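Blinded run. Sample ID left blank on purpose so nobody reads anything into the name before looking at the predicted structure. Input follows.
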Amino acid sequence: MQPPALQAKSQSVKYNRIFHCDRLHANGRTQINYTEPSRMMADQFVEKCTVCKSESLGRYVKSVAAIEAGETLLLEKPLLILPASGDKRCTNCFRFAQQYCGKCLISPLCLECERHSEFDCKTLSDVITSKQQPEIQVELLKKYFATYNILKCLLLYENPETRDYFEKMLQMESHLDKRRNTAVWKDHSRAVIQPLIKSNIVKRLQLATRCNEEFLQHICGIWDVNSYEIRAPDSEGMRALYLNASMLAHNCIPNANQAIDDQYRIKIYANRDIDKDEMVTISYTNVLMGTDDRRSFLREGKYFHCVCARCEDPTELESHMSTLICNKCATNKEEGFILKIDPKTWKCSNCQHCL
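Blinded prediction complete.
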């Protein structure tokens, strides 16, 4: 039987869909410096945009000046990159891992990588090799290897250089109350949180007093709700978290697009002219999906019901992405579109035939 960390791969977690502008990293070992605060946000983002907050949307981004189509608004490095649920990848190069670090004992590595983050390795090594009781259950952490993903997040707080980033991460939406006692909540509890707590390792961290089930579920929720899907060297999916890009609101007819470069930086650029004081939006879904599929994706993974102009229009703003051709009208050589009127009714716009 597979351990829960592998079983969890089938859980309903929806990452933000993204276009990859190239795959140069598919054949290389790109290493990323996550701790470059002066470079994490493009100057254009500061000059052209401001962060606002509302009760319905939470944090969102609004333009403070006119933005031209094609203009780059943000070029941002990831705060962290983690494997997709159920995958065990090298923490250094993101290929599949076949061994663990010989020093800290729990950091996954591929056969070609011998080292990883010096700070992470030393911190974990000091904690694990300490004679302090209770003893760290290393084998439990290896069995439930998805625990390392949350440890990576907690290590941001351990490092004084990245502690502010950790606190900013905690400000992201996790929809904790909507996730409580759901299947994904229980999967995280079984495969990540309980093994992490029972291993005793969180008791040795500076966040020990905060590391209860609720706090760790909040971190899991932040990643499930806010992370972007990126490509591993083998073209399989991974997850990346971006502090600024995560604040962009969704719209099914967005005015900005996103792409990932070979260094896993996210680029946000205007796909049309954006007026001053206009909300900057991206699409969390594939824009070629129909309304039902888009709404289902957003409801299950992002915990909201989209009421944008496209979703509210049966013709999807004349794109007819979900429209059916009426066979009766076609037989009579007429043009008829069968549109969804309500959840149970589809009606032809020409002959009024219902399905």
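Unblinding after everyone has recorded impressions. The chain is about 30% helix and 15% strand.
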